[in-house]
Amino acid sequence: MLDDPRSVVLGALLVAVFLLRKLLDFRRAAASVQHLPGFRTLFSDRFIWFPYRVDGISPGLQSEVNLYRKYQDFDESGWDIMAGVSAFPKSEVTLYLADPAVIKDVIGARARFPKPMGPYKILLAFGPNLVASENDEWKRQRRLVAPAFSERNNKLVWDETVRILYDLFDNVWGDTDTVDVADIKDLTVPITLLVIGVAGFGRRITWTEDAVAPPGHQVTFKDALNVVSRNLFLQLLFPQWMLRWGTPTMRRFHTAYAELGRYMREMIVARRTAEVKEERYDLFSSLLDANEGLAESGEKLTDTGLMGNVFIFMVAGYETSAHTLAYAFILLALYPDEQEKLYQAIKSVLHDGHTPGYEEFSTFSYSMAVFNETLRLFPPAIVIPKQSAEDTTFTTTNAAGEKRTIPVPQGTYVSVHTPGLHNNPKYWDDPDAFKPARFLGNYPRDAFLPFSGGPRGCIGRGFSETESIAVLTLIIARYRVEVKEEPQFAGETFVQRKARLCKSRMSVTLFPERAPLVFKRR
After folding, report:
1. pLDDT in tens, 85-101
2. 3-class SS at 512?
3. Between the N and C ends of the chain, which has fewer C-beta atoms within 10 Å?
4. Which SS3 state, helix, strand or coil, does residue 205 take?
5. Phi-psi region for residue 401, left (φ > 0), alpha (ψ -120 to 50) or beta?
6. Which helix (H) or strand (E) holds 286?
7. Do the beta carbons of residue 79 and residue 398 sit within 8 Å?
C-alpha cells in the first residue's frame, strides 16, 4: 500500500491536518489565558508516564527539579502566576500559583475550586477515603474521620512518642556515645511507624519487636507499609498480573500490598470482636466507633469501605512526619549554630532533666520553629491541585508591583506551587536561608501552606506536629547531630555538601535520597 504514491500523499495530508488542528487548539488554549508566560510543553504535569521535567516536553511539576528551582520559574516569567499549556493528549491549561492572596481565595472556595480526582487515584489503593474524595462523598468521609483527630489523640501521640524515644535511648543506643546512622530515614521512618502503630492503631511495638513476620504473614507490618507507600505509583501503571509476575520491585510491591490488606482486615476484625471494649483514643478505634454511630443514618461503611481511610491514616500518619524530621536533622547538622539555639531553647524548659508532658507542648516554640522552617524549605507536596468549576479571573502582581488580571476559563487546572510560594521573596526575607527564628514572631501565614488549607486542610496536622516536636526536642536534648564524614566526599564545599544531603525524590511525599548523620551524646 505504501508503494502507491497517492496513499503516501493522503497519509501525509492526514498527519498534516492532525498536526495543524493540534497547533490551533494549542494556540487557542494559550490565548484563553492571554498568553501568560510559563511552560509550553507536549505533555502536562498530569501525564503519569513522563513525570520528568524536560523543556518543551513536560513541566514535571512532581519532579524534584522544581523543588530546587523554588521561585525561579516565577521570577523568569515575571509574575506570581504562570501558565502551563500542553498539547497532548488534548490541549489544556494549568495555572501555577505563588501569589498568597490568590491562593487564599482558591483554597477557601471548595465549591468554586474543587480537587480534581485524577492526581489522587494513587491514594485509592484500598478504597475511598477522605483525601481522595470530593462533594457529598467528602462530607461523609469528613463526618466519619474528623472525630478521631482530637486533643485526647494528640496527648496519646505525645505520650507514646516519648515512650518510643526512651525505649530507643535505653535499649537500642544504650551507653553508646556516638551513633552512626547510615541514612537518616533509617531513624525517622521507624520512629514514626512505631508512633502510628500505637497512636494510630493501638499496636504497641518496641524497637526489638516486629523484626520477624508473625504467623500467617510473609513480611512485617512495618515493612509492608513502607514498601507499599514508596511504590504506590506501580498500582497506577501496571495491572495486577504484571505486578505479580514482573520485576523484583513489582513482585515485592505485590506481596507487600496483599500483606498490608491482610493486616488491616485483621485489625478491623480484632477490634470489632474484642470482648472488652475499653475506651481508647487511637485513630483506628475512634474511626470504628464513629462508623458505628453512622448506622442509624444509613451511612455506616462496611469493613472494606473502612480500609481506604485506614490506609490513609497509615501512609499520611508516618510518611510526612518521617521525611520532615529527616530534613530537619539534616539542616540542623548543616547549621550547627541553629542547632545550638534549639538546644539552648530546649534546655531552658528541661533544665532539671524532667520528662516533658503534653501540657508543655506549647513551650517548645523553637522546636516548632525548626519544624516549620523545614516544612517551608521542603514541603511534603510540591503542588496542591485544584480545578476551576466556573469562569473567573485572578489578579496578580509582578516584582514592580504592577497588576495583571488573568482570565480563568471553567475547567482550567489550578495548582498551588508550594516551593514557589514558600520562597517568594516578596514575602520571605532571604528565602534560601535556614532561619527558624522567622517563625517565632509574625510571619506571612498566607505564604506558608505545608498542610494545604481551607476546608481541605490536612486533618492530621496536629498529629504530625505533636510527634515531630516530641522527636526533635527529646533527641536534640540528649544528642548533637553532625554530618558523617566520608572519605569520598573529602574537600567538598558547604554548597556541595548541602546539595548532596538534601538531594530529594518523590513518593507519596518528598523525601531525602540519602543522608548519613552522626548522633553524639551531649
Report:
1. 999 889 999 999 999 99
2. strand
3. N
4. coil
5. left
6. helix 283-292
7. yes
